[in-house]
Amino acid sequence: MVKKNAWEQYDEQEMRKAEAFAAAYRAFLDGGKTERECVAEGVEEAKAKGFISLWDALKEGRRLQPGDRVYADWMGKSLMAFIVGTHPVSEGMNILGAHIDSPRVDVKQNPLYEDEGIAYLDTHYYGGIKKYQWVAQPLALHGVIVRRDGTKVTLALGEKDDDPVFCFSDLLIHLAQDQMSKKASEVVEGETLNLIVGGLPLKGEEKDSVKQGVLKLLKDQYDIEEEDFLSAELEIVPAGKCRDLGFDRSMLLGYGHDDRVCAYPSLRAVTDFEGTPDYTLCAILTDKEEIGSVGATGMNSNFFENTVAELCTLAQEGCADLNLRRALRNSRMLSSDVSAGFDPNFASVFEKKNAAILSRGVCFNKFTGRGGKGGSNDANAEYIAEIRRIMDGANVDFQTAELGRVDVGGGGTIAYMCAKYGMNVIDAGIAVLSMHAPYEIIAKCDLWEAYKGYCAFLKEAKPF
């Protein structure tokens, strides 16, 4: 079963729609290089479409009616958006779930030091990265620093043309004989990812004068003390914007496609929905997927089910445990996460007829995991048939895939964490080349087909 290239089926009007959506996504990606920035952008998008804060509605004791739109910002790192349907929430929701964290390098809590006239920040990488890909290129510093008194400084340094950038140094080829003989995983070690942040000594200082110069700049420009690093979340990401790729501009090269390329159309599919849905709609943009969905803002926590319980309360369905369990059990979900795009340069790790191909549309993965499907959600055939019906009815180009050849590797998504409630879940995302690299590649038509598919799912999915 060979799927056609989606571009071949577009007329001029469809081409313009795909291009316009890609431009909007590119702006989202440029402004959302961290999970906090993505949530902030998502909240603004929701507010612009008439959504109100669920937490404000709770304080006001407001009753939710069918058609009401609410969002819930969880700790500034995860976001949920709901449109209340005509059917009770306990009859299930149509859910789109994606994650907004991406592989990166984080700044340690006691990071700043000087060595031979260079000031550095000590770091610890986050998620699965090839560390050698991050050296000798311009990097930006994003995040928040919270002072002792609770006031907050937000940083996004390295993105403007007149901003300074930062860098991890690499060993010159002339002296790299031993380095080049190492395994790729050892060419650059985690503890050598020390970020260069300064080299100008502070006059009058005899000890660590370059470090003291950096601290003076931080104090003068941001009113930050060295101890404020203790309560900071600073992320090192590639500097620069997402760009069109290729002579024909058919692709996008950018940082963080995994998984913001699914998060953006998921949120937009809900916020763009017009009218009142039959079943409550939900978009979940969650954190910490790249390190196992742990912590208070990851999908393994209870923040989602707790929020649904609050939603049931405001819809006057009560918050009894049974109503909540029914709402989650009866729901239908697309776990919107990317797939490994087939790369002809590395064809040996794929089984081509079961691989995600760029420009063939949104991709469905019946299961992920590794080896004998370990750590996987495995979608039911009946549910897949329903998804096929919905996609075909909306003229959405789609394909199916696995994550590489059997026993070669593997990976997981948030799908199995939601399936634990008994709901039907399948992974539905976009093919990505160079996944987890500082710059990843996607096809614009796949982004557009995913959005169309997500919109169709929200409108048509129902109990079966």
Tags for this model:
464 residues, alpha/beta, Aminopeptidase, Aminopeptidase i, Domain 2, nine-stranded mixed beta sheet, seven-stranded antiparallel beta sheet, 12 helices, 29% helix
Summed up, what is this model?
The protein is of the alpha/beta class and 464 residues long. Helix content is 29%, strand content 24%.
Task: State the low-pLDDT regions, or none.
Answer: none
| Approximate strand percentage | 15-25%
Q: In total, how many domains does the architecture comprise?
A: 2
Output mean pLDDT: 94
Q: Count the E strands.
A: 23
CATH T-level fold name of the largest domain:
Aminopeptidase
Distance between the termini: 27 Å
Helix residue percentage? 25-40%
Largest sheet: 9 strands, mixed
What is the 3D form? globular
Tally of helical runs? 12
CATH architectural name of the largest domain: 3-Layer(aba) Sandwich
Radius of gyration: 23 Å
Strand arrangement in the largest pleated sheet:
1-2-3-14-4-15-21-17-19
What is the CATH domain class of the largest domain? Alpha Beta
> CATH superfamily of the largest domain, called what?
Zn peptidases
Q: Supply the helix-strand structural class.
A: alpha/beta
